[in-house]
Design a protein that fits this description.
Blueprint: H1 2-28, H2 48-56, H3 93-96, E1 106-108, H4 121-129, H5 131-154, H6 161-176, E2 183-193, E3 196-198, E4 215-224, E5 227-236, H7 242-258, H8 265-276, E6 280-283, E7 286-289, E8 291-292, E9 297-301, E10 311-313, E11 328-336, E12 343-344, E13 350-353, H9 365-377, E14 383-384, H10 385-390, H11 397-405, E15 409-412, E16 415-416, E17 423-432, E18 437-439
Antiparallel strand pairs: 1-18, 2-4, 3-16, 4-5, 6-7, 8-11, 9-10, 9-11, 11-17, 12-16, 13-14, 13-15, 17-18
Helix pairs in contact: 5-6, 7-8, 9-11
Length: 446
């Protein structure tokens, strides 16, 4: 009996020694055998808070400090949510699109004769080279969309026209980051009412108030580096004017559809007139056929040049001139319940320095000083009296008249149909790209 006990003790002593050696080895590997000598399966990692507690406090199993070091986890950086525009809009659009890539306008394919352009690698390469310019004009278009979206939400009867214009223009200045001639407003806000078709904005002191039965054409422009977005829409609160607005909206979209590389300007005008004059509108019990205003046109646009030489008629019988690759156009239509013919009337508010004017000697000191202000702030972009007032110019009317008389500056008085009639307008800026037609200013609204 005694011999058996001694041998057993010897064996137990040997087992204990082996177990201690095994535990030390396993501890180095981060594993500990249980009382039965079985190594448990790997357990899932404890929560992050527990890991931190284990790393900071002493080890419960007495393992060496090196074995307790917490393995560093690579924490994925949280992506910042993209900026969202405020209401009312106040964040410049370039901060909303930090990549510098601005939304593309609506893409339309050319007609059959030019369909080959879509797949042409040569034409695609031309577009890649023009990408900086495309982004500049798309930035201007995005400002236009955001500003007009907000303005459409707040325009109501009883609003002072002066307040409407200043709210709109201050928002453009903020969203586009106005910067001298590099970025800003392209021309004064036109808010022509009823029989006034275009080129009316309030001068200082004007107290005109928007009424429920008014038909207002809201026409404003933005630009980046002289690349101009010219876009307009009509506001009418009384639903009886809806057919009049629909006529010009559909006529403008028809003009856009017909426009393209090698399209003849006269053909675009004929298509516009056909659609426009297919509409009738009943106003206070009287039915009127909607007429295209025959002496108003769309136009080509150049850098710092709102009217670049080519006119897009809105009636048949225009020029045979063709549209060309790379050109910008403002496709705008005017529908009227009056004569369909406008003339200059009312007090002038719009002015623009002539694009091709050379050096003209000036004798009046105030005229010289005013010309310097115009050159520095507007160049050949259109301006109005309110803009001169904002720059601190005073008692400038005689000097401005002098600049007009010698041909340096051109006045643009309001254009009016017969009193008592109503005129509607819609307008978009398009770019005839090498591979397709892009409606730069298209939005969800129109």
């Amino acid at each position: 009996m005694a011999a058996v006990d001694a041998a057993t003790k010897k064996m137990e002593t040997m087992n204990v020694g082996q177990n201690q050696e095994t535990e030390e080895n396993l501890s180095k590997e981060g594993k500990v055998a249980n009382s039965n000598g079985v190594v448990p399966a790997a357990q899932s990692s404890p929560p992050e808070d527990d890991e931190e507690a284990q790393a900071d406090g002493p080890s419960q199993d007495g393992a060496p400090e090196a074995a307790k070091k917490k393995r560093k986890k690579s924490k994925a950086k949280k992506k910042k949510d993209p900026l969202q525009q405020t209401d009312p809009p106040s964040i410049p659009v370039d901060e909303l699109f930090p990549s510098g890539e601005f939304p593309e306008g609506e893409i339309q394919q050319y007609k059959d004769d030019n369909l080959w352009r879509t797949a042409s690698e040569e034409k695609r390469e031309l577009e890649r080279l023009q990408k900086p310019m495309y982004n500049a004009v798309r930035r201007a278009a995005e400002v236009h969309r955001q500003v007009r979206k907000y303005m459409r939400s707040i325009i109501k009867p009883g609003m002072l026209m002066m307040d409407l214009c200043e709210t709109l223009e201050n928002m453009v200045r903020k969203l586009i980051k106005e910067n001298g001639l590099q970025a800003g407003i392209a021309f004064p806000t036109g808010c022509s009412l009823n029989w006034v078709a275009a080129h009316w904005t309030p001068n200082s002191g004007d107290k005109t108030v928007l009424q429920y039965d008014d038909v207002m054409k809201l026409d404003f422009g933005t630009h980046i580096d002289g690349y101009i977005v010219d876009c307009a829409f009509t506001v009418a609160f009384n639903p009886m004017f809806d057919p009049l607005l629909q006529a010009t909206r559909d006529a403008t979209n028809t003009g856009i559809k017909e426009a393209g590389i090698d399209a003849r300007l006269c053909d675009v005008g004929a298509a516009i007139q056909e659609v426009m004059e297919s509409y009738e509108v009943e106003i206070n019990g009287n039915v009127f056929q909607v007429k295209s205003v025959r002496n108003l046109n769309g136009h080509s646009i150049g850098p710092y040049q709102i009217h670049a030489g080519k006119s897009v008629p809105i009636v048949k019988g225009g020029e045979q001139t063709k549209m060309e690759e790379g050109e910008f156009y403002a496709i705008e239509t005017f529908g009227s319940t009056g004569r369909g013919f406008v003339r200059e009337d009312l007090e002038c508010s719009h002015y623009m320095k002539n694009f091709d004017v050379g050096h003209v000697p000036l004798r009046v000191a105030k005229a010289k000083q005013l010309l310097g202000t115009i050159n520095n702030n507007f160049g050949t972009l259109a301006f109005c009296r309110r803009y001169l007032d904002r720059l601190g110019e005073t008692k400038y009317l005689m000097a401005l008249k002098n600049l007009c008389d010698v041909g340096i500056v051109q006045p643009y008085p309001p254009l009016c149909d017969v009193r008592g009639s109503y005129v509607s307008q819609f307008e978009h800026t398009i770019l005839l790209r090498p591979t397709c037609k892009e409606v730069i200013s298209r939005g969800n609204d129109y």
